[in-house]
Predict the structure.
Amino acid sequence: MKGSEVGSAGRPSVVNDNGAWCWFQDERALVDAATQTLVVGSIAVGDGPGGEARSGNVELAVVDLRTGTSTIVVLHERLEADDHNVPALWRRSDGRWLAVYARHKTDDLTRWRISEPGDPTRWGPERSFDWSELTGGRGVTYSNLHALDGRLYCFVRAVNDDPCALVSDDEGATWTYAGKLFTRPKVGYVNGYTRYVSDGARIDLVTTDHHPRDFDNCVYHGYVAGGALYRSDGSVVDETALTGDAPSQEKLTTVLAGSSQWGGEWMTHCWTTDIRRSADGTVAAVLTARAGAAPASAEAGLDSWRPVPDLRFFYARMSPSGEWEVHQLAHAGPGLLPHEQDYTGLAAIDPYDLGSLYVSTPVDPRDGSVMPHYEIFHAYTSDGGATWRWRPITEKSDVDNLRPIVAPGDPGRVPLLWFRGAMTASQHYRCEVVLLDTPRDRRD
């Protein structure tokens, strides 16, 4: 046991002894409520158990929630040792599971496999979509699966490193190019970092201008419905989304502005963390920003390999009428990695309770004290994010607890996942994936 886990739910269990994930793919974990099965994807690396023979495996932990038993399934052996390659998961109407994954901008293939009916431990052959004619061989990254108007979309960072999409009319058996969602001239590494959430009739998203290392980003919101791209207030940005020329994300609604002041402090270089939407149309998002740095030109980030000592979490909430309220949430600590100074421990919104969050931070949100390691805290608000109640999920740990996920699929439980251990890069870590599964009526 790495540290002492506390709280009414008890202690977590290890479901994979070698794994981690990035956060620009979803769903990374899903629950089948009928069979009480949880599936979570991760990438194994050579630093962990199994060594180089396991390095780069795209893996699934298939967990029987009734017994706690976890079975490891390898979707692709030694694809690439990089947490960006974690699969996105989807449950089809025929009971089969779909998993879609890609390398980290080192080839032009979006890959997928489909399971046997009701059995995510048995999978059919891998198939792939080759983007190279569209990308010029510059590579693709990320997979995000979302249904809209009876079709399944996979959003990928692809052409010009913009958010693009594939579309399927057979629940992921075959894919064709759908188009580009938005675009702008590149600055630095890539274009907008986008998080998506959908309900079958609408896809909401939050996105940035570029990588926060390269640009003083704003965070924008928009949504796709009925074939068009809209701002938060329902005004049209693009009448034919994913068709023809794509607009700039700058035309969307600004949720958190770069070089803005909060409580007398400058916030710059914003980034996206998580987004969820409730049945009544409320949208919640967790965002981050650098605190304290004096604003400069938007592209001044190009010389910003210097350490970032103070990152902040923000909680943004949109009413069904399209109006946003944004509040500071918590201190996120310094940059997690020396070469990725905008990385945080991340936060996850409960998909069935938008006022309930799980936050990874090295700064205790109750008193501001700095802790030796990143710990997971539960936060709850009853006033739209103006105030929060905090309780620790982990404490006094001897390793970091990072990148929480609350897996959707069963509204009656809170399956909280994270990974814990030592991480020095997206390609190098010695971390294990853990699950704390709590009946919703027992949660504090």
